[in-house]
Amino acid sequence: MNRSILIVDDDEAFANTLANSMERKQLQTCVALTREHAILAASQRAFTDITLDLNLGEQSGLQLITQLRALQPQASLLVLTGYASIATTVQAIKLGADNYLAKPADSTAILRALDEDVADAEVVEQDTSEFQTMSVSRLEWEHIQRVLNENEGNVSATARALNMHRRTLQRKLAKKPVGR
After folding, report:
1. pLDDT of 1
2. Which long-range contacts (CB under 8 A, 24 or more apart) does 28-36 make?
């Protein structure tokens, strides 16, 4: 069976680089830089795989998962993001994504993630010597993401729930997540 992949990402350079890499691996590719183009492409052609950026400009890719899943029920759907959090990972899987992968990721890692369904993945025991606890900054970031998710992306409601000034929350959200 020939594999074909729909790459949904607003970063044109990343999307085209990924498409070129996938074509070298014998996959047919289609790049969609906007939500509208992604829906159009998914309604016109069948894909075996879909990669979806979590942040599509001002929109969340999470809102697109359900629509893509309805149009492409057989496709393996992978959410890619530079801003990974536990809250968005859980939400993406609940909405119908098969897997979730933090950027930067190369085409080999993306194909591996597309082939592995999170729900079916084996639980692998970690060596406790490699286990690291999260930093306080990372815990705060994860908590903010969870509360933001609970408030359906509403920054004002999230700021109230966290008892935080809205501008302070916006500054924290604009930063990249801190390491573990």
Report:
1. 57
2. 28/2, 28/3, 28/4, 29/4, 29/5, 30/4, 30/5, 30/6, 31/7, 32/6, 32/7, 32/8, 33/9, 34/10, 35/8, 35/59, 35/63, 35/64
